[in-house]
């Protein structure tokens, strides 16, 4: 998520674009080269939203570049349509519509399969352009005679013909493209794009419709590609058939990697390096086609040593310098001890009502009575293996239930079915009177049922606050919303929800720390915080104490006691001392079946439970 002073990047971009015609000629850049770089940069703005921000690597962007380009060029050269800007916008809409249809197909798969589908689709478009549609596209001749824009202002007419004159028009288009792209990546939708890149599973689990958001990113990238394709025709006065080639898509990917993905400006910088090297090595050094050898070496070196590309490297350098400076400052400032869970809250915290509730605080009984969740005859088979068999289970509003059982007893499978991560082979799940069997995870989370995972499922590239923001957004905005131009700060209640959750899991002082820098116990608390930020009415916790040191366990048990106050919770854990201290009733699973259901006291002394755990050696399991 880009956090900057308002309009700083926009202003710097505008200054850079105004200064370029005065500076770049001295560095050996011809105006035509600069215009080509800007077209690639505009093409790359959309691609970076798709690849850098959302994590979807497409090798098929040439399909949309070509579509937008040929629609605009066809309108301007064959139909008598005279508005260049109008044709560019129509080309962009055509590309976006094509992107929507292609996205519906390609996004059915993820990872390498998604990438392969995009390659195949680009190839299909290339074939269609050359064969069935060659009457419209000019086949291998392309479409010559694309005009340049002119605007009649009444008192005068502005013509943007070529060189630095056309630069003004293209630079303005690029600036508008940057302003829009920045608004998008800073919006709630942009934040969710980053969450999908980092952990699509968790983005769904906290209640977002990630398919809808991926499709949105795909359409945005197609729209940018379509507009840039149209500009290519205008720039060259000719729409070339190679806009549709696989090489175009490949070049875009490589330029983005060279410049730095996830930076918006990476593709522009990558294009500058690429085209400068091309012009310099091919023409000035006389290397001919061999210039690509040098480019290949540059690419390999950059990818190996600057994984974030040129801009990523610069950002790292600035971060490192800042880190050194703040370290030097920190040495002069006495360190502040971390707040322990259960520690007395400060006065401002008490006043705000966002107090981490102390251990041992009394739970309020839920006003509603009766079961919040009922499972009937729940069975899950994996081939011949029965992981859960005919489980009947019920939890009341406000109850704190524990689930125990030896490894392989089917506890995690049971949780996965309750949150609809996996469908049951047979049986029914009713949550707050509603049959949720077979529903999607995101829908179930939206209804108020979610879980924290046994193995942390965090958004690793984001800070603690950003992680909780993603979860809170799902609660506050619903499953899917296209508020592309809204500021993140503008989401009502978001700040309060995030601050409240930070306080609840005692991570307020670590709010701006990247996840990678957290200690394990802190990560576990954030894992629970992600589930809490969705404001669940029923919270499932899958081994919240797993892998913790004894000290971390004590802290986390305190945390669980405090968050249990207004919630219904079901907790799986192997640490029976801690679990029995926390919960009111315990369900014991063994070999996929319910062995027993009772109070902690009843469970501790039950012979069948002793048998299940200790293989017949009798004695109390938790004294
Ligand atoms: P627990 O959480 O109690 O340790 P699990 O629910 O993880 O138990 O597993 C119960 C049984 O189901 C185990 O025998 C496990 O190997 C099997 N199982 C769990 N998930 C799968 C899967 N995706 N495919 C096949 N078998 C599975």
Mind sketching the topology for me?
Blueprint: H1 8-23, H2 31-53, H3 62-78, H4 84-106, H5 111-130, H6 134-137, E1 143-144, E2 150-152, E3 157-159, H7 163-185, H8 188-198, H9 200-205, H10 210-236, E4 238-239, H11 246-259, H12 266-284, H13 291-305, H14 309-330, H15 347-352, E5 371-382, E6 385-396, E7 400-404, H16 411-418, E8 426-431, E9 434-435, H17 441-447, E10 449-452, H18 464-477, H19 494-504, H20 520-532, E11 538-542, H21 550-563, E12 568-572, H22 576-582, E13 585-590, E14 593-598, H23 600-604, H24 607-614
Helix pairs in contact: 1-7, 2-7, 2-8, 2-10, 2-11, 2-12, 3-4, 3-10, 4-10, 8-10, 8-18, 11-12, 11-14, 12-13, 18-19, 18-20
Bound molecules: adenosine-5'-diphosphate.
Low-confidence stretches: 333-366, 616-620
* Average pLDDT over all residues: 87
Quaternary state of this entry equals single chain
| N- and C-termini, Cα separation | 50 Å
Strand content: 5-15%
Strand line-up in the sheet with most strands: 10-11-12-7-13-14
| Structural class category | alpha/beta
What is the helix tally? Answer: 24
Structure summary:
This protein has 623 residues and is α/β, with parallel strands linked by helices.
Describe this structure in words.
The protein is α/β, with parallel strands linked by helices. The protein is built from 24 helices and 14 strands. It has a 6-stranded mixed beta sheet with strand order 10-11-12-7-13-14, sandwiched between helices. Strand 5 and strand 6 form a beta hairpin. Helix 3 packs antiparallel against helix 4, helix 8 crosses helix 10 and helix 18 (464-477) packs parallel to helix 20. The radius of gyration is 29 Å and the shape is elongated. The protein starts with 7 loop residues before the first helix and ends in a 9-residue tail after the last helix. The relative contact order is 0.10. The model is unreliable at 333-366 and 616-620 (pLDDT under 50). Residues 382, 385, 387, 405, 407-413 line the site of adenosine-5'-diphosphate.
């Amino acid at each position: 998520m880009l956090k900057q002073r308002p309009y700083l990047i926009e202003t710097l971009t505008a200054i850079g674009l105004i200064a370029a015609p005065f500076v770049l000629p001295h560095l050996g850049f011809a105006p035509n080269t600069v215009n080509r770089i800007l077209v690639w940069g505009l093409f790359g703005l959309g691609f970076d939203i798709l690849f850098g921000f959302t994590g979807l690597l497409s090798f098929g962007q040439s399909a949309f570049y070509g579509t937008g380009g040929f629609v605009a060029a066809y309108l301007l050269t064959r139909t008598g349509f005279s508005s260049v800007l109008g044709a560019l916008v129509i080309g962009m809409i055509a590309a976006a519509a094509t992107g929507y249809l292609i996205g519906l197909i390609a996004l059915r798969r993820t990872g390498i399969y998604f990438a392969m589908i995009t390659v195949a689709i680009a190839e299909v478009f290339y074939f269609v352009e050359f064969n069935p549609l060659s009457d419209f596209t000019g086949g291998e001749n392309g479409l010559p005679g694309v005009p340049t824009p002119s605007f009649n202002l009444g008192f005068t007419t502005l013509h943007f013909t070529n060189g630095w004159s056309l630069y003004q028009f293209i630079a303005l288009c690029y600036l508008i493209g940057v302003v829009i792209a920045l608004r998008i990546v800073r919006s709630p939708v942009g934040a969710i794009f980053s969450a999908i890149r980092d952990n699509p599973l968790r983005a769904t689990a906290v209640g977002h419709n990630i398919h809808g958001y991926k499709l949105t990113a795909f359409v945005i990238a197609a729209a940018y590609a379509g507009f840039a394709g149209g500009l290519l025709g205008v720039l060259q006065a000719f729409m070339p058939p190679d806009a549709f080639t696989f090489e175009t898509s490949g070049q875009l990917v490589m330029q983005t990697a060279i410049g730095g993905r996830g930076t918006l400006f990476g593709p522009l910088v990558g294009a500058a390096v690429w085209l400068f090297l091309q012009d310099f090595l091919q023409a000035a050094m006389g290397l001919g086609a061999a210039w690509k050898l040098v480019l290949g070496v540059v690419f390999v070196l950059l990818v190996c040593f600057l994984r974030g590309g040129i801009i990523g490297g610069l950002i790292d350098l600035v971060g490192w310098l800042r880190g050194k400076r703040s370290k030097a400052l920190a040495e002069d400032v006495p360190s502040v001890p971390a707040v322990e869970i259960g520690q007395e809250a400060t006065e401002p915290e008490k006043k705000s009502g966002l107090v981490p509730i102390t251990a041992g605080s009394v739970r309020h009984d839920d006003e509603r009575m009766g079961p919040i969740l009922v499972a009937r005859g729940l069975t899950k088979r994996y081939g011949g293996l029965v992981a859960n068999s005919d489980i009947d289970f019920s939890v009341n509003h406000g109850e704190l239930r524990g689930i125990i059982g030896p490894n392989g007893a089917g506890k995690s499978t049971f949780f996965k079915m309750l949150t609809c991560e996996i469908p049951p082979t047979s049986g029914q799940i009713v949550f707050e009177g509603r049959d949720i069997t077979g529903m999607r995870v995101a829908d179930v989370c939206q209804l108020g049922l979610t879980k924290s995972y046994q193995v942390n499922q965090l958004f690793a590239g984001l800070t603690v606050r950003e992680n909780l923001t993603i979860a809170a957004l799902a609660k506050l905005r619903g499953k899917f919303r296209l508020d592309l131009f809204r500021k993140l700060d503008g989401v009502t209640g978001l700040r309060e929800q995030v601050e409240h959750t930070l306080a609840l899991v005692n991570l307020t002082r670590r709010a701006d720390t990247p996840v990678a820098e957290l200690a394990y116990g802190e990560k576990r608390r954030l894992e629970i915080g992600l589930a809490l930020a969705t404001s669940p009415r029923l919270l499932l916790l899958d081994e919240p104490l797993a892998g913790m040191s004894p000290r971390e366990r004590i802290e986390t048990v305190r945390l669980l006691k405090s968050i249990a106050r207004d919630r219904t919770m079901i907790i799986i854990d192997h640490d029976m001392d801690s679990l029995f201290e926390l919960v009111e009733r315990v369900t014991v699973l063994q070999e996929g079946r319910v062995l027993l259901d009772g109070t902690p006291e009843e469970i501790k002394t039950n012979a069948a439970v002793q048998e299940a755990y200790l293989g017949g050696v009798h004695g109390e399991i938790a004294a």
